[in-house]
Amino acid sequence: MRCAVYARYSSDLQRESSLEDQIRKCREFASLKTRTVLDEFVLADASISGAAVAPRKELQALIAAAASKPRPFDRILVDDTSRLARNVADALKMVERLTYYGVGVTFVSQGIDSLEKTARQLVTLHGMMDEQFLVGLADKVHRGQEGRVLNGMNPGGRCYGYINVPIEDPTRQGKYGRPAVTGVILKVHPEESQVVLRIFEMAARGLGLARISKILNGESVPAPRPPKTRSMRAWCPSAIREILRNERYRGFQVWNRTQKVRNPETGHKISKPRPPEEWKRVKVPEWRIVPEELWIAVQNRNQEMSRRFGASRLGGMSRTENARSYLFSGLLRCGQCGSRMVIISGQGKRGYAKYGCPSHRYRGVCGNAVTIRRERLEQQLLAALEQRILNSQVIEYTLQRFHDELQKRLKQMDQQEWTCGRNSSGSSIRIWSRLCAT
Description:
Rossmann fold; alpha/beta; Hect, E3 ligase catalytic domain fold; 13 helices; 4 domains; 5-stranded mixed beta sheet
């Protein structure tokens, strides 16, 4: 019997050798049962949670291989059910799907074989315990963070203007043999705190967000670390706005404003707001950087500017004029710095919407001052596309690609049992609806 092996560990606090241990146990089991482990199908996902399937590329590759013809292996060996999934529905769905492909799943430590009659009940029972582990862990982490907040510690990541100072417990061992960290306190950063104070002073004098960003970038003041979606490290209006709203700079910790919710389709976590009555506000005087009078003056000005110039709501998910998507939104890039071109002016009732480089307009770190009206850009690009598409060779190539992709998609749907019949016109409509949706 040909066997594949799947292993997983979820946190960087776990040892990477955990994967080696899981694979070793699976190999030992295969040896006792006189089964052959195929080295090319010994796959593992490292530092990925078992709460979702989508982010685990190696598991997805293993399932895709099981669905191929001819089937390359007959069994998948997994150390225990928690390594496959920490969600009962995901575990049952994967086992059922692999069984359909003719591939059994053996959970070595628990002695469960998915091809046995009692397998579904056993996977459900162990899956419930695996899932409850995540729920209990989340509650414990949240409770621990709340305790740190109430004690004036920092429960999250870094904040511009402060230094994270870990509190170590020499009586306990933590990661890599170092003392365990029981909490993190914030200390005011001497240089960055002066930048924060200066930002508040400029805002109180009436300078706008873009103007403050350009001044700081022009003076080469080090900016906060950029998010993963942007490689350029520079001050931007959104960073200035968040600094002006952050109550840490007035000596208050506001915690529990958001919660992480996992998207069941993509497996990614997103932040969703909590109701204000669940927020925790703790006074931490040693964090104060901005005097109270200056803080109040800036907040009053922000409220006045929002009242006079704030974008009006358009309804439908509370979208604003600035949040509208245009025909080529997200597709255009600056030829000098590579930033995505955006509408930088003319979004109100008057004027013309114009595309431009945001790094030039709002940050002053790019020399590309070229702008173009939205309707002119759309006309030029659409005309060029029409000229190239209305070509016999291009049309023939496009139709052939569509036919190939259609056949490929229909085959995938047939393998996944997404169709429910082949002898009625309703089945064809369902197939076409699924294709249009994807």
